[in-house]
């Protein structure tokens, strides 16, 4: 019985109608407490319960990619743990890796609220958070205290500070990377959020090239670096980014961020504002981006013959959603909105489903499923 979907979600979403951002803040406070009191007997008991209920270990789900061991392919997407306050607890919730951030060099409050909305009819969320975080130095100090205590790979998603002009973006990313490069297992250049003015223009080949150039020159420890792209890019622009990924020897591409498209939505009015989604700024995540993100994964795989690792994210709710992205070419996948709607059991349910898919297709490991669509 899934208590979350049967009782907790209806209570919070429909009866109490809890504000999404407030609910997220309360969740993060609880997870942060668990993460930072893990040496206490009572907390260890809670963590053991979580691990028994939510974690699934199977050697068929393991992968070694870009020098890191992933116990399973399901990760937490950036945006949930913006400041890394709960970094030690994500493994106890079943995740095979977790991506912290987005973090900026200069701490910032983000956009004014309300800035996070649920769209239940569309199994989606609309957010215009604006990279609210305490800054790279605060995250660095926190992670330095916990170095060596993580049992899964920890990624760090880097964004541009809002106060930094676009022409100085490369230096801004570099400053964050310098503070954090010894503390993350991999790094992501986020140039695809729609909620920082002008940020998506950094996906342009010349602008992105300047950022990747300074980061790789600083990257003396050879940390894996990814670029995260928007689902709204044209094929030609994605091809340009693939070229840059090869030129700068990136570890891979994350596909995709939220979309600014509004077509096909069932939601007519957002209750908190009384306006239609088409009138509200921000990016939409969840089911509406599912197919487009999978199309982009497929395109990247085809253009690179599977030589560039892809982390697939966007609209993953079920094992079938996860399998579609993996067989289209994703080596790893990430969840966020689906986890909010489906609840904490979702990760183990997806992993159980992936194991069933492996058996159905007579495969010995998840790595054999990557790009299966294109294998004869």
From TrEMBL:
Pfam family, one: DHO_dh
UniProt keyword annotation of Ligase present: no
Note on how the cofactor is bound: Binds 1 FMN per subunit.
Co-factor(s): FMN
Gene Ontology terms for molecular function: dihydroorotate dehydrogenase (quinone) activity
Class of the enzyme per the UniProt entry, highest EC level: oxidoreductase
Pathway where this protein functions: Pyrimidine metabolism; UMP biosynthesis via de novo pathway; orotate from (S)-dihydroorotate (quinone route): step 1/1
Domain of life from the UniProt record: Bacteria
Catalytic activity: (S)-dihydroorotate + a quinone = orotate + a quinol
Residues the record lists as binding FMN: 78-82, 102, 157, 190, 228, 256, 286, 315, 336-337
Enzyme Commission code(s) on record: 1.3.5.2
Subunit note: Monomer.
Matches recorded under HAMAP family: DHO_dh_type2
Function: Catalyzes the conversion of dihydroorotate to orotate with quinone as electron acceptor.
Family, similarity comment: Belongs to the dihydroorotate dehydrogenase family. Type 2 subfamily.
Protein name: Dihydroorotate dehydrogenase (quinone)
Organism: Nostoc parmelioides FACHB-3921
